[in-house]
Amino acid sequence: MGKKIFTLVAVFIVCLSFMLVGEESFAVEKSVKVRLPKFNVTINENKIDNLYRKYPLLVYKNMTYFPMTWYDCRLLGLETKWTQDEGFKIIQSKVTSSYVAYKTKHKNRNSYNATIPTFKITANGNSIDNSKEEYPLLSFNNVTYFPLTWEFAHDTFGWEYVWDKSKGLMIKSNNPQAKTVNLPKYAGENDVAVFNGYYYFVETVNKTNKVYRVKDSNIYNKELVYSYEIDTSYGFNNSLTFYKADKTLWFYYHSGGAVMGSDVYCKVNNNGKARIEESGYLDFKNTLKGKLDIGQGPSQSGNNLWLTPTGQERKNGKSIGNPNLIYGCHLEGTGYNPNGSTTVVNDDIYILASTYPIKDSEQNYIYKINLNTNETIKVTNFGVENFKIANNTIYYVKDEDQYLYSSNLDGTNEKRLSDNKLSGYYDRYYEVDGNVYYTVSDKDENLKLYKVDTAKEDTLVLKEYLENIKIENNKIICTLLSGEDYGIKVFDKSGDLNLAITDQVSDSFVDGDKILITSGSDKSIKLVELKSN
Hints:
InterPro entries: LRP1-like_beta_prop. Residues 358-476 form the Prolow-density lipoprotein receptor-related protein 1-like beta-propeller domain. Pfam families: DUF5050. It comes from Tepidibacter hydrothermalis. The chain is mostly beta strands. The chain has a domain at 30-175. It has three helices and 50 strands. It has a five-stranded mixed sheet with strand order 8-47-46-45-44. Strands 29, 32, 33, 34 and 35 form a five-stranded antiparallel sheet that branches. It has a four-stranded mixed sheet with strand order 3-2-15-14, with helices on one face. The protein is elongated. The N and C termini lie far apart (85 Å).
């Protein structure tokens, strides 16, 4: 009896094992033969070198397959997500990337084995039964590959899809592209700019800085914009910074030491030549009555506001405002920081000012000075760290509590805007077509971006930390800290994502819908043109 029970149990175990083997074999991924393409493949004008690529394009059943790597996906405007429950998702997104070659030193074979994955797959929300597809998705080298069929490329993702006997397969997606700009290798070692169809860059030759511009990155027709001898009295400092003001391209550089030296400001004229407009430690603004200079040298004192009539030399100018006030600086104890808040509205100047000597109590107030009458009016009865004016509204951060406020130009109708304190030196705020944004820094000076919401709690716009922010054409261009998944994220005026760029960034310049990027990895220069709304 005991042997019979043992025999029955043994038979049951054998049968069960066959059942389990059957279920496992059903889930095993089928192996298929694939080969490298024998024709050219061009993706977004990037010719693919499959012979030495870690993730080469493949051919299965005479269909070309594309690797879904991190950068390859984003090059085509796609993102992928994997979860155990939902499987593999392919999503068309607002992303882009420079082309990454994934180049190796090892030459690929002509053919390999790939497998047909059995996990769940969706593309733009549409479920794909991979077991029934004529051209199923494949898995090779631990990367999922999808077929460049007309149905996938054209119908699902809306790409241009062209086959040419001599040129091979050409695919072009409709997301903005990060294209390499044909500038000299040394261009990325200093500042670069794009402005009105020209690229601007700097070449350092011995102790001379030469500023050039080229049209359409044609480096063989470079034009000299400006040159100057680098002051080496206090070390070798060849850095130069481009910026825009009053719809014009400017740049500045420093000459000499920290105390005895000066900042030199140059304006680029329409003919592509630059000249010195100002030098010293100062801020300056154009007004209807002439040029306004705000002295901000190391030894500050009152009466530091100077107006020079248009077209005349500075010696023909005059001091304006209250001579007992020190203008344009945020005073802290016995120190000061140049403020840069000065704003001209018609014939009125709005400016930060403090009573002089510094020990007096009324510090960092906003004043209004009329250019016609020289009448000086106090706008606020409290100190502010800085202020901005947009659409007849003043925005400012109070010294006393470090929250962001707004008021009318005369200081009335004050409203507190921010839920968070803007306590750090790097904290900024921005008005974008009626929407207000601000940054908050932590103890390590890492920035987070918030959007003001007067009806409820302020909105955290993105989870990543920021390096800096630029506003252009009602878009918010955020450079993220090095090491984040993306290098730049662009938001529209409402705070919705417009584009995410994978490239890590050491610097950037924005002009209209063009973002010029200096790569954080190799200092190469890339251009991304945003799509206008």
